[in-house]
Amino acid sequence: MENNEEIYYSILQWIVTEGIVNEKGDRFDFKDRGFLLDILTDFNSNIVVTACAQVGKSVTFSIKTMFALKYLRFNIIYTFPTDDDVREFVASKFNKILQANRHQFMGMDTDSIERKEVNDRFLFFKGTISKTAAISTTADLLVHDELSRSDQNTISTYKSRTKASKYKGRWLFSNPGSERDELDLAWIKSDQKEWIIECPHCKDRHYLTFPESFNLEEKIFVCKECKEPIDDDVRRNGVWEAQNGEQKISGYHISHLMCAWITAEEIIEDSEGDPAYFHNFVLGLAYSPGDMSVTKSTILDLWTPKELTTGNIFIGIDVGNIKNYTIGSEKGILAIGRFSKESDLDDLIAIWKPTAGVVDAMPDNTFAKYLCDEYPWMRMSYFMENNNNPQTIVWWGENDKSDIVYSHRDRILDRMLLDMIEAKWLIGCKADKNFQLFIKNFETLRRTKVTNNKGIERFVWDSTTGEDHYVFSTLYYRLAVMSGGAGVFMSDADLSDKPPVIDADNNYDVSTQFAENNE
Ligand SMILES: [Zn+2]
């Protein structure tokens, strides 16, 4: 410790007395982020925070880490998923905070990314997915940022590093992923603190949840008990209360619902996009979809003899030895079918005159290329993940790739199947043998859990028989609908903000049609 320097025992006293600022050089303002105060001052050796995106958890833990390094004299290992994440975080956040509070961190090196030192205590930053070995030195405190996107095996090996320490600290925080990773397991064992608000009308005390705390028509927050409106000040003035009794692990759950600067309308809009994104990054909850499936009765419920034409025609084509197509309007499917000769499709196009179309780019890229060259409104589909922007599940290629539409396979399937279950569009094709096959194809879909070699779980859709061609021709048709036909994609928030088109009188028996068309 340098001469004439104060020693602080309280992080709040330190922040206030020394004028500690954030990475932008601003004083900490807890008006809208009151829920971070208890997390900031919590020095329990076991902390877990399961949180939505963009609420300031990384900066909160950076400040705590700096305090722990300098005043608690801890040796600390601080991890991120990858070495690139470490570089990005240290350059854009950690070093900026150090520089903005230079008077407190004189002589601390900002050149070295991996290693920081103050008064013989060190702080190591390290990626869990790294070309170099895990840090082998012992430490008092492990800080695991973005835990759910980190290598779960490496995280486990770090546990042994604190054996020699009295404190044996383990602070975990992350946007959650799927169930049963290290974050979720720690959260389950924790005291599970939720942000409890008090309704000013009926005085009921509870925490906000989706959709129970929403009036979806008026797009406002309401009390779960009396359904009266809840204003932003009520959301600000919550208190943390354990929901799981007293436990060794101190747990906090942060969602966008407690963020006064985020409106009910924004949250409702997010709920209509990618379900995994909504759970992980908006609700701050692990997402492990149950056994969602589109059954025969789901599809029969969507079937209607009503007119679904709108003037726009969209086509989706799945390519294989036999090619499947789905044709429809924004409102629903008008026709489905199969063909083997490529020229059959030209005839189909001449009859229907589509507004927009999407064709599978695989396995036969020549056919897809031919179609895109021949028809300027045609796009080919590639499945891909957009790691930089997890909210985006559909996006356009640019420049020489402008005839390509990219989408996240499993998440766009999730969205389409959910839209079918919620009846966001209908089916008006003939109830014939093709329609029976269509139903069968959807019935073979299963969502299965896979775990990669980093121990990270995810869910993928596959078909028990491999016969899922109508699922994909229908997916491509819905992608074509999303394109709007003018070559401009709607933002993904618009993917499904349509109210259900099914109504009480959509109650038809297709069995007669089946009988008639299957003669
Ligand atoms: Zn109430």
Tags for this model:
seven-stranded mixed beta sheet, binds zinc ion, 22 strands, 519 residues, 30% helix
Distance between the termini: 91 Å
Oligomer: single chain
- Molecules bound to protein: zinc ion
Strand order of the largest sheet: 18-19-17-16-13-14-15-20
Globular, elongated, flat, extended or rod-shaped: what is the shape? elongated
Q: What's the number of helices?
A: 16
Give a description of the structure.
By secondary structure, this protein is α/β, with parallel strands linked by helices. Helix content is 30%, strand content 22%. It has helices at residues 11-18, 35-41, 57-70, 83-100, 152-158, 182-189, 232-236, 264-271, 275-283, 296-302, 342-352, 365-374, 409-421, 433-443, 469-483, 511-517; strands spanning 46-51, 76-82, 115-118, 121-129, 141-145, 169-174, 193-198, 205-206, 214-215, 220-221, 239-242, 250-254, 314-318, 323-329, 332-339, 356-360, 378-383, 394-396, 404-407, 426-427, 445-451, 457-463. The strands form five sheets. The protein has an eight-stranded mixed beta sheet. It is elongated. The N and C termini lie far apart (91 Å). The model is unreliable at 486-510 (pLDDT under 50). The protein binds zinc ion. Zinc ion binds at residues 199, 201-202, 204, 223, 225-226, 228.
